[in-house]
Design brief:
Elements (H helix, E strand, L loop, with lengths): L10 H19 L7 H15 L13 H14 L3 H8 L3 H4 L4 H8 L1 H12 L8 H17 L2 H15 L6 H21 L3 H15 L1 H13 L1 H22 L3 E7 L2 H11 L10 E7 L6 H15 L1 E2 L5 E2 L12 E6 L5 E8 H9 L1 H8 L6 H17 L5 H15 L3 E5 L5 E5 L4 H8 L1 H5 L1 E6 L2 E3 L11 E5 L16 H32 L6 H10 L5 H10 L7 H14 L11 H12 L8 E3 L8 E3 L11 E5 L5 E5 L5 H7 L4 E6 L7 E10 L4 H12 L4 E9 L2 E10 L2 H12 L4 E7 L1
Parallel strand pairs: 2-6, 12-16, 13-15
Antiparallel strand pairs: 1-2, 3-5, 4-5, 5-6, 7-8, 9-10, 9-11, 14-15, 14-16, 17-19, 17-20, 18-19
Length: about 750
């Protein structure tokens, strides 16, 4: 069979298309341009076009399409100016050619050079291991505290890569998409880039859960007509009153993102038809800045004249904007048809900040907005976190990244000092978090606190409007127990540092004990071995492991058991050594040797390769034949097979990209896989009998366990059973759904 000929490329047509895209960029940038800016952009475009002239993207398109697209996103969707456009056009030049940062500085100035230097430092992160990846994220955050435009251009770059992910192989799609949801979407959220955050989340779902994405999008399309009719009925009386009030306005009824709806369906376990808040009604007023507050509250009054509000769902982010600059009034009201509807009220200025991102809007367009301190304060906190985070401990970098991520999506709580100074903390913050926010030494010596003049413990969770006074004592010392209830990264990091100082003696003692014991056991004390021992005893860091030994929590004689287990595992895994030195690439090479010339030679075939490669099915998600899966190379337990939708998949793919391998099922032999089904319905005589008859008699399926609970007429059963594959399970679920009284049948891990 002859191979298809390569497509013929019309270079003239391509040149015309490149110029067309470049001119569109200039048109979008026109409002931001000052004298000589157009010349500088042209120079950057020519430099980039020349540097990438012989390069093509994986899709076959000229590479220059990518930098132009990134610049287009930066100007059109984020609102950045000339410096950022130039940096976006040149962002891959230093990495891909012999051009140096010094060359960029000579041609385009210090600001552009500094941004490109930052972008170059954080590129190419997919192929590295865990700790290196976390270190790269830390580098990226260092550039955030220096010049936020580095992150904004990186987000534009990531958005274009996600939009063009079709041309990538499946394993790369999974890695890039997982990394996007793990760090880039939360960063976009924190920087106020709402539209970009939503699109990144939707694109993640499109590539990782394609069926769920298509199904949700299809249902949204199918319900559009009835939704539009409902919105028109809902807004009619509001519009009449807004016209009478004289405020220029726009009302939009917009559906929530596909990802957020899918997330809601997953969490609530309800069918699509029962999710009512699929959309929000947005009222946007066009009024001068000095009239904004009064106009928004007037619009709120008009909405609540017609519909009864839920008093617990009023959110006033106009009086106290969120840390990323977001300003809006949110209320949830009951419609005449008995549905809750979320209504957002804001002005044109607030809407632009909400959509395009406060950081760019405020810092680089010179807009005089009242909450400029918010984003600066957060960037200051990032800088402080970076300065106090462990530099040398590689696991510390990963721990730092987890702490940082937990802050990205968090909402705020507004509290006051005894003198009335406003402090903005992460929601869920305690009195001890407040103490550390004021000063490290106040936190370290904090004994208790008074909240609204009432004495409370350190773990007391603060509410909006609380006035907090910290009570200290020179006898107080930081305790490990404090880490259980503090939530802010600042408090966690400071407590860990203070405890480290206190516990250095235990760490030294522990290290000495381990060194002596390993010498007696004739095992060479390498970093690799210590890392394996640390993981074996469940410690997050090496220091934590030594500390536990020094404190007596781990006895050194337990190393004998570690040695025996290690040797047993190594004997079992002789064919493919996965003791930590191995990564996904080494496994892939081994698979290619096994499979020879086959097209899927780099893929682990589940059910076929068991005698050649050591792998097991992961217990955290119980994959069964037919599930979309991947392999993960563990340090001590061979290869673990996970479902792509596994709760741990995003973290594994984004943090340990180099240890992911492709895997698929083969149908050579019929195997039995353990699966779980949760069945809910109305209780009746004989229901359990009918359910078990379908499972055992009709489909000859073996059940491992059945637990049934019935309360107030509602039946819920959890059944663990053995099936051959996903199609076998689907047939069973469809049959069970037809049993009289059964409402819902869902698979659980």
């Amino acid at each position: 069979m002859t191979a298809a000929p390569d497509p013929v490329i019309d270079l003239n047509l391509e040149r015309q298309e490149i110029l067309k895209r470049y001119r569109r960029l200039l048109r979008s940038a026109k409002p931001y341009l000052k004298e000589n800016d157009a010349k500088l952009i042209k120079k950057a475009f020519n430099t980039s076009a020349e540097a990438h002239k012989d390069m093509r993207r994986r899709s076959g398109e000229p590479y220059i399409y990518h930098p132009i697209a990134v610049a287009q996103i930066a100007v059109e969707e984020i609102g950045l100016g000339t410096t950022s456009i130039v940096a976006a056009l040149l962002h891959d030049v230093v990495e891909d050619t012999d051009t140096t940062i010094a060359d960029i500085e000579r041609g385009f100035g210090q600001k552009v050079a500094r941004i490109i230097d930052g972008l170059t430092k954080i590129s190419g992160i997919f192929e590295y291991g865990t700790s290196q990846q976390a270190e790269n994220f830390r580098k990226m955050l260092l550039t955030l505290s220096d010049d936020v435009r580095v992150i904004l251009i990186k987000l534009a770059d990531r958005l274009h890569n996600m939009r063009t992910l079709d041309s990538m192989p499946r394993d790369k799609q999974l890695k890039i998409a997982s990394e996007t949801i793990y760090i880039y979407a939360p960063l976009a959220h924190r920087l106020g880039l709402n539209a970009i955050k939503s699109e990144l989340e939707d694109l993640y779902l499109k590539y990782v859960e394609p069926e769920a994405y298509k199904d949700t999008a299809k249902k949204l399309r199918e319900t559009k007509t009835s939704r539009d009719r409902f919105i028109n009925m809902f807004i009619k009386p509001i519009e009449d009153d807004l016209i009478a009030s004289g405020y220029p306005y726009v009302i939009k009824g917009r559906p929530k993102s596909i990802y957020s709806i899918w997330n809601k369906l997953n969490k609530s376990k309800k069918p699509f038809e029962e999710i009512y808040d699929l959309f929000a009604v947005r009222i946007i007023l066009d009024v001068p800045v000095e009239q904004e507050k009064a106009a928004c509250w007037r619009a709120y009054s008009i909405v609540t004249d017609h519909y009864k509000p839920n008093p617990d769902r009023l959110k006033d982010w106009i009086s106290t904007p969120r840390a990323n600059g977001y300003e809006s009034l949110h209320t949830t009201v009951m419609s005449k048809l008995g549905q809750w509807v979320e209504v957002q009220i804001r002005t044109e200025r607030m809407n632009e900040i909400a959509e395009k991102g406060y950081a760019a809007h405020w810092k680089y367009k010179g807009n005089d907005t009242r909450t400029g301190a918010g984003i600066d304060s957060w960037i200051g906190q990032v800088r402080e976190m970076l300065e106090t985070a462990e530099k040398g401990d590689k696991t510390g970098a990963i721990e730092f990244l987890d702490d940082f991520r937990s802050n990205l999506y968090s909402e705020e709580v507004f509290v006051f000092t005894p003198k009335g100074e406003l402090k903005v903390l992460q929601r869920g913050a305690t009195a001890l978090d407040f103490a550390f926010d004021i000063h490290t030494q106040i936190g370290a010596r904090c004994m208790a606190a008074k909240v609204n003049n009432v004495l409370v413990p350190l773990s007391h969770v603060l509410q909006n409007g609380d006035q907090v006074e910290v009570i200290t004592s020179n006898k107080q010392k930081p305790k490990e127990d404090w880490l259980r209830f503090v939530v802010t990264s600042k408090a966690k990091t400071k407590i860990k540092d203070l405890i480290k100082e206190e516990n250095k003696r235990y760490i030294t003692d522990g290290k000495d004990l381990i060194t002596k014991r390993l010498k007696i056991m004739r095992m060479e004390m390498t970093n690799e071995l210590v890392n394996q021992i640390r993981a074996y005893f469940g410690s997050k860091t090496t220091s934590d492991f030594y500390y536990r030994v020094g404190k007596g929590h781990i006895e050194v004689k337990e190393l004998t058991k570690f040695k025996a287990d290690k040797e047993a595992k190594e004997n079992r895994a002789n064919k493919v050594n996965t003791d930590g030195a191995q990564d996904g690439k080494a496994i892939t090479r081994e698979l290619k040797k096994i499979h020879g010339e086959r097209t899927d030679s780099d893929t682990l075939l589940i059910g076929e390769d068991m005698d050649k490669i050591d792998y097991t099915l992961s217990k955290c998600c119980n994959p069964i034949a037919g599930d979309d899966v991947f392999g993960f190379v563990t340090v001590m337990d061979g290869i673990k097979i996970h479902r792509v939708s596994c709760p741990n998949a995003v973290e594994l793919m984004s943090n340990h990209g180099n240890r992911i391998i492709k895997a698929k099922w083969t149908s050579q032999k019929e195997l039995a896989f353990l699966a779980g089904l949760r069945i809910t319905g109305t209780d009746r005589m004989g229901l359990v009998n009918d359910v078990t008859r379908v499972i055992s008699n009709e489909l000859n399926i073996n059940m491992r366990s059945v637990t049934i609970d019935s309360k107030d007429g509602i039946f819920e059963g959890n059944i663990r059973l053995y099936v051959h594959d996903t199609s076998h399970l689907d047939v069973l679920m469809r049959k069970l759904e037809r049993v009289d009284g059964v409402f819902d049948v869902v698979r659980f891990d």
